[in-house]
Structures are given as C-alpha cells and as structure tokens.
Amino acid sequence: MSIIVEYQKYLVLNRGLAESTSMEYGKDLREIQKWMVSQAKIERWSDVTKENIDDYVADMSQQGQKPATISRRVSTLRGFYQFAWVKGLTKENPAKYVSTPKVGETMPKTLKPAEIKAAISDTRIDATTRVMITILAETGIRISELRAIRWWDVNQQERTITIHGKGNKERRVYYGNGTAEIFQHVNVSGNTQLFTIDDRDARYNIYMALRQHTNAEKCSCHVIRHTYATELLNAGADINDIKELMGHASVTTTEKYAKAAGAKVAATYKQYATSYGQ
User: Fold this and answer.
1) Phi/psi of residue 36, each to 5°?
2) Do residues 243 and 226 make contact, with C-beta atoms less than 8 angstroms apart?
3) Beta bridge partners of 160
4) 171 φ, ψ to 5°?
C-alpha cells in the first residue's frame, strides 16, 4: 500500500476526517511528490530535506499560488511526516520548521531576469530608459534614489554608488558590468545629476519598456527592486546583507523576500549583477 493511501486511511479511521477531506490531503501530497521527483530529483519521502521544501514553497510563490494554498500544503506535509515518523519510515520531520506566508499576506511581485535583460537589449527603447533599467536592476535602488544620484556619488574604481535614501540615510550599493560599461562612456564629474527626467516620465517609460517583454501582472520600477532582492536571496546572499543593500530600516521588511525565494544555489552577487552587461 502506498504510504499516501495509508495516511489517507489513517486520517479517516483514526482522526475521524471525512473521506472527501482525506482525498484532498492525498491530492496535495501527490502534487508535492510530483514536484520533488521532477524538480528536486528525489523519489523517496525519507530523502526530502527542509531545504527541498523551502525550494518548493519558493516555487509555489513564484508560480502565483495563494498564501493560503502554500500554508495548507506545508501543513499537510507536517502532518504526513509526523505520521511517517511514528511509523518509523523517517528519522525526522523536515517540514516542522518551514516558514510559510501568512494568509492574506501579499508576496512580492518579481520579473524574470531574462525579461529585464531583454528590455535593456531592445534598441527600439530609448537609451535613457535602458540605462535606468540597467542601474535599477544591478543595484536594487528605488527610482527616487536613482534620480537623486549625482556624479560625485559614483566611484567607478570600486564600482559603488553612494545612495541618499529615506531619512537622508546614506548607504553604498554595488553595480555590475552593464552599469560599468555605461559609466565608461560618460565623462562627467561633480554634482551633475545622472538623470534630469521627472519622476512620472521615468516611471512610465520604464513600465512601457518592461511591458514589451513580459506578461507579468506588474512590471513597475519597484518590481525590478523586488526582483533584485529575490534573486540575491536565491543566489545565497545573507538576508542582513540584503537589508543593508536595500536600505531597509528593519530586517523584518527584508524577510518577506525570503518567503518568495528559495536558496537553491551558492552563488555571488557578481554572478547576478553582471548578467545585465552586454
């Protein structure tokens, strides 16, 4: 007998759940099992780790699953693994400490890095807009912070920009090959602003540029910022480092990205940021 079927029988006979409810639990478990086999390449329930489940949660978030659905499936896994542990089929419950989004909590919207790069490479889009998208994508700064940058804030040798954020707080962010290439072709210094375009036009132009390369529900400047944070977390960056780069006052703000990202690979900031270079 399949352990899923055995668990379903347990729910009906020992927990007193309705047959229809037991069927729903089984359906969730088979969906999870299918993902583990196809994405994590794991065929035995006993081989599943917390990290695998974190990645599954991240994938569900990125696919647009509702927080209630994600929470339900993780809860199903916790109960299932508790059953398997009592039966002696597993040594631990890998779902026990998996974080789930709160019901009603909105997950950060993101774009695929390839969609952002496509907009940057599209020569039909005006150069200023493509430059703005490049810098936003490689630094994760806000559009208001981008428009406030002056040339003396840029350190081309260290590839850093001093950002004047909310509450006049300063922080340094790093940029990659795409932005470095742009700065190499501009010979300006002093307190001259990088961009003189007004806020409304900047936001609109960036939206229209991204909309040509994505079907995502949202593709604003702030979604680029969400993408930056989520991709860094996926690349293995420490959440406190992301907090500093993003200019968040509290790590609690940054933690929402961790719920939408899975730490799938050990990589560096450079591997992400330089992907927007030509």
Assistant:
1) -60, -40
2) no
3) 155, 174
4) -150, 160
